[in-house]
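re: ur question from earlier - yeah i can do the single chain one, its not a big deal. heres the input i used so u can compare w yours
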Amino acid sequence: MANIREDSCKAYAVLDLSRKIVGVKFINSEEEYANYEAIELTRPISYCVTVKSATLGHSIKMNRKTSGCWGSTRALGFEVPSYDYFNGSEGYNVLGLFKDQAIAMSCASQTANNFKSTYGVLVQPIEKYGDGLYPDVVIIIGQPREMMRVIQGYTYHYGISKNFSLSGNQAICAESTVYPYLNNTINVSFLCSGTRYLANWSEDEVAIGMPYSIFSNVIDGIYNTVRSVEMEDNKQRINQKLLESNLAQINMDSEPYYIVEEKEKKESR
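and the output i got, formated as tokens:
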């Protein structure tokens, strides 16, 4: 098993993030739920709000009783989706999100829902895991430029992903958590109107979710492409953060590939 705390330190060094990276663990039983040390909610709130809170450093656990959003309640596996959801009536007639009921039904069938019975979820910063406890899903939220670096890190090890699934709806629960969890792959989300309102994300923030099983390789991919894509000021910032975390610094003796290509073009004229 990868060293989650070392990977976390490396992630915060190579990415310029203003928020904590979040780890989400699905909890299968009441006994397991009781064993986790985290803030236990006393009233229902939306799952995406717990994720927002975790990006600020908090550890939270929630279950069906404290799940305050019907979309995430369904997606996370706290409840089985209703007949009206699957036949498109809810999405079309109630929410008005689709052109017609057929499109609503099609989208419902393709939206990630966890059909395993879930008792609860633990949502906390990635660095709070370890000592035998690991998340199922990792969520990174930040500006598009840093999300580009996450995708570059993924591509370094796994190549081009052809499996993105996004609709602009159920962004944190379905797109960023359940889809990566069920399909064992990375996914991008531009967030949704609901979470932008409830969790009050900045307008320039987007999300990426991935199964924890690939997190170490994705961060390694970002680390190994720093020399190729980062400008000098970013390289210095990254190496300083690596030094502060007692991690191996990166040899920065080369310019980004796009600067080299531009120089070669000028020289050939």
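The longest strand covers residues 22-27. not sure if urs matches, ping me
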